[in-house]
UniProtKB/TrEMBL annotation, chains A, B:
Gene Ontology BP annotations: DNA-mediated transformation
Residue ranges constituting the Smf/DprA SLOG domain according to the UniProt record: 119-329
SUPFAM superfamilies: MCP/YpsA-like
Biased composition (Basic and acidic residues): 331-343
Species, as recorded: Diaminobutyricimonas aerilata
Stretches the record annotates as Disordered: 328-361
Family: Belongs to the DprA/Smf family.
Annotated DprA winged helix domain residues: 354-410
Protein name: DNA processing protein
Coiled-coil region list: none
Length: 423, 423
């Protein structure tokens, strides 16, 4: 039994700190491997998810470290009852390889210990089973600050999401919604962004309710920084969750993937206020694709901050909701089956398509995320940051250069400041 | 060929004044009979509608005057391809008889002449064919002030309706909707009430559009009186319509029936602002029952003036609409089939059920309409005013007395001022 090039003496104490109860050697290895995978693959990587499901996190990691031949790799997945083509495995290995340094996982675990971050994996009693409906796109593990036991309450809870650019009306309605749902016994799940998200958490805390914030970056640094005090309070009274390890910055890609976790964790999603292209529509699309009930709060047709909500009702079959009671109806507490949704097929946006980024391929979003407007980076660095193979990174950089979104110099690639195709 | 106890010399000049073009003797009789029927039966009387459809207006009127035996009456209806039971015919005759005085029709026609009112009957080029979807509940004739030729434009037009108690928001959105639809070539149909209706007409006039007001009472007196100037302008530039003859006051029953005409006339109905129990929800229910597209404009969930609109979207399948373009989509101009709806079965509310009067039977609404809080009336008078048989009027009065809604004295029946069951 190996520890991926590390010693058991290095790994075991680190893993033990992150976990409740005793672990045997294999459990320790599996947990370490899951932690490592959250840094090696980008959130929502279907091939990584299927691979871990077939071979176990440790087996998959070992094969990766051993640079398995894709054809043999695919055969062993098939032996384990999984199904992955050698080509997609080869592509996966190419995009995972740039991040395959065992030191990174150790650093992430050390940081986690420093910040009191726990690791929750599928099968743990704390695991929010709703995310399993994401199938191969499900998180491989979740990092948690606060009380991990509260995560199970997300399963019957309601996600309250909306625009950063909220109006007084939107904030008022969010406050009523959040405190009303808390009074009815629901946990409030949201993304801790400015505007609607922040108000949802605040009102839940003010009503002594359970609230869970799902972040796009590592839990060593709270984002947005203006919500550091709020997130600290959520840690004290609720839980803050991420599927990426400490040290991972939030990127556009990770925000989009974070949204799928919010939608999948909760029994229902309600959009309280959202512009025509608000990111919260992406959360709504995930909820809808998962067969989770989706609600939208209407507002004045003269307010662009409600245009996205109206769009959800008109075009995406969202239920119009106006009161906490109507929101609670979306996630009935006496109908436990309801909570799990229908798990209808592939989640929308698993390919990274976001209303605001429509037409921009997932790789392009991730490469733009990996670039700076000032510091030039070489394509290998870009590949590692984007979680793409060097070849894919180079091809995407070339495409984006043609679009005028990025420029190359001798020092490396930079993102242009206001490219048409970028965010 | 008789003229219902009158001479041709009395009838023909009156009828001729109300009609364009030449009429032969039979057409004159039929038109006079239709005019008489609009006063004899209450709007939406299914039995009257079916009878006129089977025997023609003149034949039906003659049989009524001759006090035909219900069984023979039913047989002659069956011979003509109609279907009416002798019992419902007997009940119909009992409720029509109290109003069966030929002098009333003559007075109505004289009043119509005085006010420049025209009579439009099915088959006329001006007839708004949408109302035919009401089947036996369709108007027997329509009285019109203004340009009757504009009525055909209602068929492809949009009904914009809403609460009397409109907010500044509702009026603003109505103005945008009405002028935007006029700009796109749509006629605006509404009920000339205060609030949303009035704004819909005003904005249409201001945009030089076609607008049609449907009233619940006779056209000799405009209701509401505060809209007399507005209705005079609609007469000059559009058309004002009613299915009841001059001299007929608007009653709750007639408002409810008027709403079915608004919905049936138009290609689509949009509710712009409505409280939880607004009368405009009755118009919406008619539109929906007729298979006509129904739209509702959302507003702040904190505004009770939008609660009815949200209810329509949540409970009655209304399409949420936010712009004139989205409203126009409900009544596409290039899809003429769309205009006619599906004509799905019996219209809701043909029985007079109104959200605000739920639980109160149609006869009770009509009897309450027929009573005064001050002037006592005997049951025969009440029967004639309510368009009910004396027996039905007496029975209903007794029921309402038990409910405490009406009281009897030696002088007659009066309505109590704030009865629980009344309006």
């Amino acid at each position: 039994m190996t520890f991926f090039g590390l010693t058991e003496a290095t790994v075991a104490p680190l893993v033990r700190e992150l976990t409740r109860g005793d672990l045997d050697r294999d459990e320790t290895r599996q947990r370490f491997a899951r932690a490592a995978w959250t840094g090696i693959s980008e959130p929502g990587d279907r091939v990584a998810g299927a691979l871990v499901a077939a071979l176990g996190a440790a087996g998959a990691l070992e094969a990766l470290i051993a640079r398995a031949q894709p054809v043999e790799f695919a055969a062993s997945v098939a032996d384990a009852g999984g199904e992955l083509g050698s080509e997609e495995l080869a592509e996966g290995m190419a995009r995972w390889a740039p991040r395959l340094a065992s030191g990174l996982a150790v650093i992430a675990l050390q940081q986690a210990r420093r910040f009191g971050v726990r690791l929750v994996v599928p099968g743990d009693p704390e695991w929010p089973i709703g995310v399993d409906d994401l199938g191969a796109h499900a998180p491989i593990a979740l990092w948690v600050r606060g009380d991990p036991a509260l995560l199970t309450q997300a399963t019957g809870g309601v996600a309250l999401v909306g625009a950063r650019a909220a109006t007084g009306y939107g904030e008022h309605v969010t406050m009523e919604a959040s405190s009303g749902l808390v009074d009815r016994g629901y946990a409030i799940v949201s993304g801790a962004a400015y505007g609607i998200d922040g108000m949802a958490h605040r009102a839940a805390l003010a009503s002594d309710g359970v609230t869970i914030a799902v972040l796009a970056g590592g839990l060593d640094r709270f984002y947005p920084s203006g919500h550091e005090a709020l997130l600290t309070r959520i840690v004290e009274h609720g839980a803050v969750v991420s599927e990426v390890p400490c040290g991972t910055p939030p990127t556009k890609w990770r925000f989009l993937q974070r949204n799928r976790v919010i939608a999948a964790m909760s029994a229902a999603t309600v959009v309280l206020e959202a512009g025509w292209r608000s990111g919260s529509l992406n959360t709504a699309a995930h909820a809808s694709a998962l067969g989770r009930p989706l609600g939208a709060v209407p507002g004045p047709v003269t307010s662009s901050a409600s245009a996205g909500c109206h769009r959800l009702v008109r075009e995406f079959g969202a239920t119009l909701v106006t009161t906490p009671d109507e929101m609670a109806e979306l996630a009935p507490r006496d109908d436990r089956e309801h909570r799990r949704g229908d798990g209808l097929g592939e989640p929308v946006g698993a390919d990274g398509r976001h209303p605001a980024a429509r037409g921009l391929p997932p790789d392009a979003i991730r490469v733009l995320d990996a670039l700076s407007t000032r510091a030039p980076r070489d394509s290998g660095d870009v590949a590692a940051r984007a979680g793409l193979s060097p070849a894919a990174a180079r091809a995407t950089l070339g495409m984006l250069e043609l679009d005028g979104a990025v420029t190359a110099s001798a020092a490396g690639w930079v993102k242009r400041r206001t490219p048409a195709a970028a965010r």
